[in-house]
Each structure stands twice: as C-alpha cells, then as structure tokens.
C-alpha cells in the first residue's frame, strides 16, 4: 500500500520532469500547465492572494460607531458653529473703569458674551438672591424672637399668676356639699 | 504674555543677541527655517487674528469690576442680629476670595522670576521670594486651618486664640 503511493509519487515526479512523455509541445513552454497527478489543479484568479476573506462580522461595531458619530455631531456641529460665530464676530468684552454716576447692570460684570446673555436672560441678579436670603433670615429671626418671648411670658404668668393667662374656671362655691365633713364623727 | 503687563513687576530681560560674523559664503539654515516658519505659519495666523480683531472693533462693549460697599464687621454686630451676621459673613467670603487671588498673583510673580532668571534664580529672585514667604505666612495665619466649612465666626475665633497666645507669650517673656 505504501509502496503504491511511493510509486505513484515517483511516476508523477518523473512525468513533471520529463514533459516529452506526456506529449507536450516544446515550443509553448510558458503556456503549458503541469497538472499534479495526485491533487486537482487549483487556479487562482487573484494569483494566490486571499480575496474572499473570512472574518467575524463587524456590522454591529460599525453601526455603533456610525450612530455615535451621527448623534454627537447632530448637535455638536451647530453648537460649535454658533460658538465660533460668536467668538469671531461678537467677541469678548473689554475691561474698563466704571464711568461716573453709572451703575452697571448685573450682567455687565462678565466677560464672555454667552455668559452675559445667560446672566441677563436666565439667571436672577445676585442682589435678588442676597435680598431673598436676608428676607428669609429676617422672617426666621422674628419667628424665633416671638417664640422666645411667648415662652418667657408663659413661664412668668404661670408662676406668678397675675397675668391674663392661666385663669381656670372654678365651680360655684355654693354648690359644694360640706355634709360629709361637717361633723367629726362621719 | 500679551501686551498689557506691568513692566516693573515683570521686567523684560536685556537682549543678548551677538553680532554676527559670517565666515562662510553658505546661507544660514536657521535663517531659512525661520523665514519658512514665518511665511507658512506666522503671517497667515497674524492676518487672520487681525481680521478677527477688526470684526470685534465694530461693536465694542465693556465689563467692569464690581465694587462692594463695606458693611459692619462681625465684631460690630450685636448678638442676636442675624442680618448683620449674614452681611458680615458675605463680606468675609468676598475678602477670602480676594486674598486667595492675591496669593496666586504673588506666586505667579515668583514663577515668572524663576523663568526669567533661568539657572541663577536662587540668588536673583530674593525680593519675590521674600514677598511670597511673607504673604503666604500671613494667609496661613489668618485663613490657614479653617477647613472646608470655614466661616467668619471661625476665623474670628482663630484670631482670638492667636491674640491670647501672643499675650501669654508676652507675659511669659516679661517674667
């Protein structure tokens, strides 16, 4: 069995070496093909380079990256364009001394035009926050004051008994029945 | 730094370009590279910047530094006067921020001096070094270990303890 394959290999080898035995024309050396006797002839149209490449699917990865870029740039590009426009054509504010008899508005203390716009349209002036806080503190301190005085008044009136509070209605004395205690032998 | 800086605080060192004595007839490659850089990068960027500045010139607007009125301190507030306390606290916070910025400016001056002097900064930067030491020591003694929840009251208490310690030292020194 093994000898048969060796003989076959030897026959193939000899056939390859000696083209005259298979009746090849000697003139067309370049165009003749020499088939291997054991395996089928494989003729690559791409001269050996792997054209149908086997690799795992990158559909999901590419779809993800595409969608990522899409959704980022959907708002990213308009925002970048607007900010570039503002920085180039409107520009930042310049620092200056406060003119005489002029009270600047609360947004005129910021440099960048977008910050100024936000401070002007979206935020409350810091003075308003200050005053609101002061109002809350005032209300709470008045409440605390009231509660403290009420506590003191209650304590004193209860103690001394000479104020308008802590008057409890007592029964009419004529209704009291003294008969159980009227004689010492009861 | 851009143009508007104080020349006394950040002095410009004297130029030390040597007189050129060319001994070859060949062109200087450094000059060629400088010219190349100038024409490919410097000139377009400068023209663009000038154009942008011209657009800015058309509608100028200004911003100002907010000046706050001084209000009574924490030491001048009566005990239950919460409004006075609040105003004093806000003023203390503004002053704290200002002091932080002062320390940053002094630190930047020291850094600029070191950059300017190069390797001889240890002997030439004495003035800035002393100023920085003084300012940071003062900041540490006033605002030093107050912590994240530092307030005007805590700062005042710290000052009180400092004064007590000084008085104790003075009496101990007398004895």
Automatic annotation (TrEMBL), chain A:
Q: Which InterPro entries match?
A: NADH_UbQ_OxRdtase_B5_su
The record lists the membrane-crossing segments as 70-90
Q: How does the protein associate with the membrane?
A: Single-pass membrane protein
Which key words tag this protein in UniProt? Electron transport, Membrane, Mitochondrion, Mitochondrion inner membrane, Respiratory chain, Transit peptide, Transmembrane, Transmembrane helix, Transport
The protein's predominant localisation is mitochondrion
Would I find Electron transport among this entry's keywords? yes
Which GO CC terms are listed, alphabetically?
mitochondrial inner membrane
Compartmental location: Mitochondrion inner membrane
Which Pfam families would you find in this protein's record? NDUF_B5
Q: How does it assemble?
A: Complex I is composed of 45 different subunits.
For this chain, the family text in UniProt reads:
Belongs to the complex I NDUFB5 subunit family.
Functional summary from the UniProt entry? Accessory subunit of the mitochondrial membrane respiratory chain NADH dehydrogenase (Complex I), that is believed not to be involved in catalysis. Complex I functions in the transfer of electrons from NADH to the respiratory chain. The immediate electron acceptor for the enzyme is believed to be ubiquinone.
**PANTHER family on file:** NADH DEHYDROGENASE [UBIQUINONE] 1 BETA SUBCOMPLEX SUBUNIT 5, MITOCHONDRIAL, NADH-UBIQUINONE OXIDOREDUCTASE SGDH SUBUNIT
Annotated protein name in UniProt = NADH dehydrogenase [ubiquinone] 1 beta subcomplex subunit 5, mitochondrial
Which source organism? Acipenser oxyrinchus oxyrinchus
Q: What is the lineage of its organism?
A: Eukaryota, Metazoa, Chordata, Craniata, Vertebrata
From TrEMBL, chain B:
What's in the keyword line of the UniProt record? Electron transport, Membrane, Mitochondrion, Mitochondrion inner membrane, Respiratory chain, Transport
Query: Which coarse location class describes where this protein primarily resides?
Result: mitochondrion
Task: State the membrane topology.
Answer: Peripheral membrane protein
UniProt GO cellular component terms: mitochondrial inner membrane; respiratory chain complex I
Q: Where is this region: Disordered?
A: 1-24
- InterPro entries in UniProt: NADH_UbQ_OxRdtase_su10 (IPR019377), NDUFB10 (IPR039993)
Pfam families, from UniProt?
NDUFB10
The family note in this entry says:
Belongs to the complex I NDUFB10 subunit family.
Any idea what this protein is called? Answer: NADH dehydrogenase [ubiquinone] 1 beta subcomplex subunit 10
Origin organism is: Acipenser oxyrinchus oxyrinchus
């Amino acid at each position: 069995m093994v000898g048969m394959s060796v003989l076959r290999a030897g026959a193939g080898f000899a056939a390859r070496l000696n083209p005259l035995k298979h009746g090849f024309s000697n003139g067309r050396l370049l165009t003749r093909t020499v088939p291997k006797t054991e395996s089928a002839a494989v003729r690559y149209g791409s001269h050996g380079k792997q054209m149908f490449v086997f690799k795992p699917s990158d559909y999901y990865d590419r779809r993800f990256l595409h969608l990522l870029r899409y959704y980022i740039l959907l708002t990213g590009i308009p925002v970048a364009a607007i900010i570039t426009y503002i920085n180039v054509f409107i520009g930042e504010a310049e620092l200056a001394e406060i003119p005489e008899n002029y009270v600047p508005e609360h947004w005129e203390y910021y440099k960048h035009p977008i910050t100024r716009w936000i401070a002007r349209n979206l935020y409350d002036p810091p003075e308003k926050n200050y005053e609101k806080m002061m109002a809350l503190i005032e209300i709470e301190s008045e409440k605390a004051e009231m509660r403290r005085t009420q506590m003191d008044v209650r304590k004193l009136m209860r103690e001394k008994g000479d104020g308008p509070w802590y008057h409890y209605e007592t029964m009419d004395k004529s209704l009291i029945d003294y008969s159980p205690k009227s004689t010492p032998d009861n | 730094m851009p143009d508007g800086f104080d020349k006394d605080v950040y002095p410009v060192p004297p130029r030390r370009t040597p007189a050129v004595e060319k001994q070859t007839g060949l062109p200087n490659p450094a000059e060629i590279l400088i010219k190349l850089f100038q024409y490919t990068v410097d000139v377009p960027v400068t023209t663009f910047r000038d154009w942008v500045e011209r657009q800015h010139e058309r509608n100028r607007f200004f911003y100002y530094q907010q000046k706050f009125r001084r209000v009574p301190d924490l030491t001048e507030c009566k005990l239950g006067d919460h409004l006075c306390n609040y105003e004093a606290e806000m003023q203390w916070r503004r002053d704290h921020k200002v002091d932080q910025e002062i320390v940053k400016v002094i630190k930047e001056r020291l850094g600029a001096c070191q950059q300017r002097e190069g390797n001889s900064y240890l002997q030439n930067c004495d003035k800035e070094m002393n100023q920085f030491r003084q300012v940071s020591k003062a900041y540490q003694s006033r605002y030093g270990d107050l912590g994240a929840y530092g307030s005007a009251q805590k700062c005042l208490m710290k000052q009180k303890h400092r004064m007590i310690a000084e008085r104790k030292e003075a009496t101990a020194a007398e004895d």
